[in-house]
Amino acid sequence: MPVTLSDRLSAELSGLRESGLLISPRVLDAPQHARTTVDGREVVNLASNNYLGFANHPALKARAAEYLQKWGVGAGAVRTIAGTLRIHEELEEQIAGFKHTGSALVLHSGFSTNQGVLGGLLKEGDLVVSDELNHASIIDGLRLTKATRKVFKHADPEDLDRVLRENPTEGLIMVVTDGVFSMDGDLAPLDRLVEVARRYGAVTYVDDAHGSGVMGAQGRGTVHHFGFEYADDVIQVGTLSKAWGGVGGYAAGHAGLRQLLINRARPYLFSTAQAPATVGALAAALDEVQRDPTLMERLWANTRYFKAELGRLGFDTFGSVTPITPVIFGEAPAAFEASRRLFDEGIFAVGLGFPTVPRTLARIRNIVTAEHTRDDLDRALAAYEKVGRALGTIGG
């Protein structure tokens, strides 16, 4: 007898439940802010990717409403048939100008962007070398290609050099890395990785989901931070759902990249274009970050303060150098229990365990934003101290 759907679901869910890994998302009852309401309780929010406070920003909401009234609720078709509105192309020109690249294309999410760009560029006979800690969307995007796939040790230019040296090819060579790694909050050493890639004639592909809006002047990203924004042999992709407060993905780089992706990127070819309100909000976000320098200043001042105080209390933040600040608890049950206790103290910070992170490195990932006040952060630090001492994570 074949396995029934009910049996499969029951077995899988029981296994997750018994291992302490079953996820039950909490529900927000108010807009995304530094302080919000979760499951009916007001909390300090350290769980969202709303780095610049744009998710409920008045300027973004006003532009979204303007575009909604003028352009309607939907585009009505895929971009290649009848779904390309003038505002789509204007947003892409705006992104290319902001990123200092020859072209840009907007897709539907950061995840689908990696599928579309990697699948559209790489062919059989090509070589792609990927950082071992790259995001799941990169891993899945590479699985869709027929290129030869190799992995190099995390953020290790010497190991990248070894892999490239041992795998010569006549096809396109691509080095793929996150810009900011989403679980650890560390930066890819792009200056050294690009140097190695160029030695072998390789293109460097940077997923800057957590770097765009965070790193570089005015949030132009990790590629800008390292000085490669004008380089035709560097491709940057990312999401528009984190610092930019909306939803979508982008690919920016060589002047010819956009035109090829219009013809080859399957998520672009087979998905209805983004809604006008979303386009308006994203256009306003790009304007706002350039208009108001205090956004980036507050983001980084809050980041430095929170990291320093966690370190003073004795927590292991895993060497993070970005607003992503992990606090290591070891095994998943300990991280989940810490998250529950923090919530009881009015702090919304989510525990992460295997398979999202390695088994012995379960953590709570905190993201500090420009919107947090010093009072928010002090309240969170007091809760962390209480919970950390109670669980024995820090000394009492």
TrEMBL record:
Keywords: Pyridoxal phosphate, Transferase
A Pfam family: Aminotran_1_2
InterPro entries membership: Aminotrans_II_pyridoxalP_BS, Aminotransferase_I/II_large, AON_synthase_class-II, AONS_Archaea/Firmicutes, PyrdxlP-dep_Trfase, PyrdxlP-dep_Trfase_major, PyrdxlP-dep_Trfase_small
GO molecular function: pyridoxal phosphate binding; transferase activity
Domain Aminotransferase class I/classII large: 42-382
PANTHER family, per the entry: CLASS II AMINOTRANSFERASE/8-AMINO-7-OXONONANOATE SYNTHASE, LD36009P
Protein family: Belongs to the class-II pyridoxal-phosphate-dependent aminotransferase family.
Assembly information from the UniProt record: Homodimer.
Protein name: 8-amino-7-oxononanoate synthase
Species lineage: Bacteria, Thermotogati, Deinococcota, Deinococci, Deinococcales
